[in-house]
Amino acid sequence: MQPRYAELAQQLIDEISTGKLGIGAALPSEIELSVQYGVSRSTVRSALQMVQDLGLISRRKRAGIRIEALKPQRPFEQSISNVEDLVQFAAVTERHIQSIDEIESDDVLSAQLRCDAGHRWLRAAMLRVDPAKPDAPICWTDVYLDHSVASGIRRQLRKSTGLICEAVEEKYGRVVSELQQEIRAVGVPERFAQALGVAADSHALEITRHYLDQNGEVFEVTVSVFPADRFTYALNLKR
């Protein structure tokens, strides 16, 4: 289940994209949106920040909240500090499943997934797409689900638009308590370069994420490849 602010952000994005309110039109104030949708002002602020990050609105004192564009104008900038940040990414993009199959990991894949060779996984290959730019997918992702959760989730993969780990939580009660990430520069593999619309071996960012449950056990691993011109990864460090 998505956080309420992410749901509200998606509602606002959908309403803006219809074009019923033109560029420059004013949206209701934070207080008015809070009453209209029955949520707290902090929830409204978080939702508006998501929408603003996509270049759809501006927020200024006295001028209020104004529509600046009907479709997202900026490349995705993702700052990851918790699972809710991933939910934000999922809320404003679409998941296009390309294939689903069962595999046993070889030595190379086992090293990346941190498992024994021959471990059984359900692999779902997908494109993550910005609805405003469907011809330029943001990334290709291979999702690996441990065999212990695969059978109960497989049918939901083509239907669900949220995070797969949320479906696992709902079905099996395995909550993501830790998310481990590894980031490296790679060349886009030939097997999905065409689907991304880029040349094979062109510059890209690869992010591998291990999802650990409350018992410290990995039940999902994702490997995402982002072409260099379509994604910015931001990490803020504070003392």
UniProtKB/TrEMBL annotation:
Swiss-Prot/TrEMBL keywords: DNA-binding, Transcription, Transcription regulation
Going by the entry's taxonomy, the superkingdom of the source organism is recorded as: Bacteria
Q: Pfam families, per this entry?
A: GntR, UTRA
What InterPro entries does the record point to?
Bact_HTH_transcr_reg (IPR050679), Chorismate_lyase_/UTRA_dom_sf (IPR028978), Tscrpt_reg_HTH_GntR (IPR000524), UTRA (IPR011663), WH-like_DNA-bd_sf (IPR036388), WH_DNA-bd_sf (IPR036390)
Kindly give the PROSITE patterns that the UniProt entry links to this protein: HTH_GNTR (PS50949)
Q: Which SUPFAM superfamilies match?
A: Chorismate lyase-like (SSF64288), Winged helix' DNA-binding domain (SSF46785)
Where in the numbering of this chain does the HTH gntR-type domain appear? 2-70
Protein's recorded name: GntR family transcriptional regulator
Upper classification of the organism: Bacteria, Pseudomonadati, Pseudomonadota, Betaproteobacteria, Burkholderiales
